[in-house]
Design brief:
The chain is mainly beta. The chain contains 1 helix and 9 strands. The strands form 2 sheets. The chain has a 6-stranded antiparallel beta sheet with strand order 1-2-9-8-5-6, with no helix packed on it. The chain has a 3-stranded antiparallel beta sheet with strand order 3-4-7, with no helix packed on it. The protein is globular and about 45 Å long. The chain starts with a helix and ends in a 9-residue tail after the last strand.
Length: 166
Amino acid sequence: MEIYSIIFLILLASGFTAAQEKQVLCNSPEVELLYSSCDSSTETIVFGIEPCYLNGFSKWKGTLFWIPKRDLTFLRTITALWYERKKVLEWKHVLCTGEDDDYTFCGALKGETVNTTVGIRSKKARYPMGDYLAILKGYSGHSEADLFLCMNFTLILKKEPSYSFG
């Protein structure tokens, strides 16, 4: 009877991990960045980032390919960052308002292809080695019911940094 319980648990666990499969965004000797959906009902998005290094870099190029299931006339995001199981940051930002937006994907309609490149910058900071988890949630309105995008990002700093971002 115990063997059937073990097989059931293995099948259950493997089904769960397949649904939550992480995609490699970048991997280098000093950093690994992975992403996945928070649940199976969220949208499929393809990301890219370069260069895949922190040492000596404060600017990166991010690429985004996405076919949204809702209009992007209004887009509000909440990003939470954890380090060693402690929330260290929560950032709320309205990306698209419907008027004079800074991002080219703002105004995209449901079903349109979004294929864009954005600049990413970092302020001067030192980050300790270890695992970081960020959760990005996107809302098409002002209430929790308007959630339509949820992504998990895992950042693994493999080496103790001996640098500052500049």
